Amino acid sequence: MPLLPPASGSPRVFLFAAAAFLLVAPFPSSAGWRVFFILVACAALLWRALAKREPLGLALVPRAFAATAIAWAALCVASLAWSIDAGYSAQELRRELLYGSLAFVVFFAGTRSAAELHLWVRLLIAGALVLGVCEWLRALFPNEAWARSISVGPGPFSTHVVMILPLLAIAAWRAPDGLGWRLPATLATGLALLLLGLAGESRILWVALIAGSMVAFPLYAKAAAPGGRARAIAGRVFVASLVVLVIFMALSTEYKIRYYPRAASTAEMLALDERPLIWRVALGKVRDAPVLGHGYGRDIVGEEIRTSLENAGAPPYAHGHSTLIDSALQLGVVGFLAFVAMMGSLVGALAAARRTAAGMPVAIAGLAMFAAYAVKNCTDDFYFRPNSLVFWAIAGMLLGRSACARAAADSA
């Protein structure tokens, strides 16, 4: 079958622009291209809607998620009124909130059929494999400028792997709702992504993937016929995956031994970890503005955090090293609750996709991705470009496909 579904005119422009966005979004130094392609895709969707009087379908966005997302966005914009650096907050509103919202809307409105979702999944997996090769080149040639220039960085790359691996649930799901990949192809792709993930040199990566597996495999087995071969295979693959992930987590400690040369054991490495200090400093800044925070933008009090860490002899990070702490830093307890409500409603919307047969693989992939992404962001904050753009693009395509499947089922 062709890579791009049959289309002409504005639909074809949209497909090319959206596909190009997914390919370039996670790569370093691609900010201009990311913005260009997402704006072109958005313009193509609007043109199609106006020229053919074809609605974008945004009314199908789950109401609870739409309400909480609008509330979160409104609070972020309102924070300009009390931000300690309104210029920085305005800049971050454009780079993070606006572009992330556009990514969600474009892929929600532009993912109506299984063929479109399958195209996005293929591109995301292919892009992750290429990005992983680039990351290994950085790891093998750390002193070469060309190798560093093609690397997105260990943290963002490992977070990207966390988001892409759960999409294999859609790849393995039977056609036409899934890609219908055979088990060997699915396992080989998954193993390749895991091996490439080692270049991210992250221990929490494997914990996050274990969390995602503990969501995906039980849902997958529950959806399979009782006593059937698919359920038995899912159980065996689940156990094997846990074993492999634990082994890879043990291998990743080799990096930490190099990073903490004074540590003789895992316990000592944890004791030398800078995160507790960073969290204490960041929480101190939260207490300075507990209700509404300091203003939108992850690094809104970056200079103060950096100075405190440097004085303590720690690396000069500029944020709270946790998505939840950073949400409170920016918008206080009000923003923290708004952010949690938005993410909780997203989980509810993904879980609701299980109500239709076509939505089941979407629910499995989406819930597993969210679980892994949430765990990964507990000890750092990768709810930040380009990871956040990819996250919202995936959320948009999954909810868009499930909404269309539900609408089709209701009208049948």
Word description of this protein:
The chain is mainly alpha-helical and 412 residues long. It is 71% helix and 0% strand.
Can you count the beta strands? 0
Q: Structural class, from helix and strand content?
A: mainly alpha
Low-confidence stretches: none
SSE arrangement, N to C: HHHHHHHHHHHHHHHHH
Shape: globular
Q: How large is the radius of gyration? A: 21 Å
What share of the residues does DSSP label as strand, in percent? under 5%
Instruction: Estimate the mean pLDDT confidence.
Output: 88
- Number of helices in the DSSP assignment: 17
The major beta sheet can be summarized as: none
Helicity level, as a percent range? over 70%
Distance between the termini: 28 Å
Give the topology, please.
Blueprint: H1 10-24, H2 31-51, H3 63-78, H4 86-109, H5 114-140, H6 145-149, H7 154-164, H8 168-172, H9 183-197, H10 204-223, H11 229-259, H12 266-272, H13 275-288, H14 302-311, H15 323-352, H16 360-376, H17 387-411
Helix pairs in contact: 1-2, 1-5, 2-4, 3-15, 4-17, 5-7, 5-9, 7-10, 7-16, 7-17, 10-11, 10-16, 13-15, 15-16, 16-17
List the defining traits of the structure above:
mainly alpha, 412 residues
How would you sum up this structure in a few lines?
It contains 17 helices and no strands.
